[in-house]
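Design job #97: recover the sequence.
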């Protein structure tokens, strides 16, 4: 069964705009079949507090949008993402913190998806203690990088498939916190769980309330600007293309 990993960068919480959407499709051997990576404009003013997290400033988004023609807003382009998954007959989608990302897809899109939340699904494996004073028992949900460190990099790391090993060597480290880089890290985790503990991946429908981003189309008073950040993202795409099966 082909799987996909999926990640978004957004302009805030549910009801705000998606700034980038990425997905990587892989087969049962861990081979990367294709990837989806697009950038969008918000319908509301940019949330400048989030620039330090994902780095997607107006100038950078305008520059990154130059290489792939796409609708300006994700709300107009999500059917193309669904067509991308359908083309590869994706049977399950892995999302780290599915309850956040899925809320940016309309309910009719959610109804066609079967998902596994790696954040919740790997909680017991990662066994990270709760913060001092936190309510409730058990372990805390791992952040993506914490899951990667334990499943892929740590002393108890799971071995990758041969296809994943080659992909990791070709792509290298992904330092930027953007949706495509996070997708590749999630791919690394997914390949190992799929190979060693497939029973842990329970793909189920999940339906969350969707709120259409509000406001009139926001006028961006900026010019496209390429810098080390955008060049690095484009090089990441190039390296991924080299390993497509």
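Job complete. Output follows.
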């Amino acid at each position: 069964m082909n799987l996909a990993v999926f990640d978004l960068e957004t302009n805030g919480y549910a009801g705000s705009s998606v700034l980038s959407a990425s997905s990587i499709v892989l087969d049962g051997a861990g081979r990367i079949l294709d990837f989806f990576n697009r950038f969008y404009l918000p319908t509301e003013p940019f949330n400048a507090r989030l620039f330090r997290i994902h780095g997607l400033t107006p100038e950078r988004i305008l520059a990154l949008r130059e290489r792939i023609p796409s609708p300006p807003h994700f709300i107009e382009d999500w059917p193309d993402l669904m067509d991308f998954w359908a083309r590869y007959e994706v049977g399950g989608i892995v999302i780290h913190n599915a309850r956040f990302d899925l809320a940016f897809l309309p309910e009719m899109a959610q109804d066609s998806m079967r998902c596994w939340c790696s954040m919740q699904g790997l909680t017991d494996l990662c066994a990270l203690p709760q913060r001092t004073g936190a309510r409730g028992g058990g372990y805390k949900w791992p952040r993506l990088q914490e899951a990667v460190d334990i499943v892929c990099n740590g002393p108890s790391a799971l071995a990758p498939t041969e296809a994943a090993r080659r992909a990791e060597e070709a792509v290298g480290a992904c330092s930027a916190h953007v949706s495509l880089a996070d997708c590749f890290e999630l791919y690394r985790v997914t390949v190992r769980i799929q190979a060693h503990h497939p029973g842990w991946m329970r793909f189920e429908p999940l339906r969350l309330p969707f709120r259409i981003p509000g406001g009139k189309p926001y006028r961006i008073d900026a010019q496209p600007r390429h810098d080390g950040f955008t060049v690095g993202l484009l090089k990441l795409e190039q390296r991924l293309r080299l390993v497509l099966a």
